[in-house]
Specification:
7-stranded antiparallel beta sheet, about 0% helix, mainly beta, 7 strands, single chain
């Protein structure tokens, strides 16, 4: 999982982050830590989850949320996501 945080009209990318859970939902809160030392990066309140497939068929998603540090709309890029809506 990677974290994209908005910085002056661009995104700063932090690769290899962890959120301590395998589930996310709109309205939920995720705390983001940098691997491997688990350094605290940010906390987001999830506002949207966008599912898509890469050209090679890998299911992915963008988990959008408002940063508690900057109040900007940032996102996590996750691999092998599954939409559980309606199950």
């Amino acid at each position: 999982m990677d974290y994209f945080s908005e910085k002056q009209e661009n995104y700063e990318v932090t690769y290899f982050v962890d959120v301590g859970t395998k589930e996310a939902y709109v309205g939920g809160v995720l705390e983001i830590y940098k691997l491997p030392k688990m350094d605290y990066l940010d906390r987001i309140k999830v506002t949207e989850i966008e599912f898509f497939k890469r050209i090679d068929g890998l299911q992915m998603c963008r988990i959008w949320g408002e940063s508690s540090k900057t109040e900007t709309s940032n996102h996590l890029l996750a691999r092998e996501c599954q939409d559980l809506t309606g199950l």
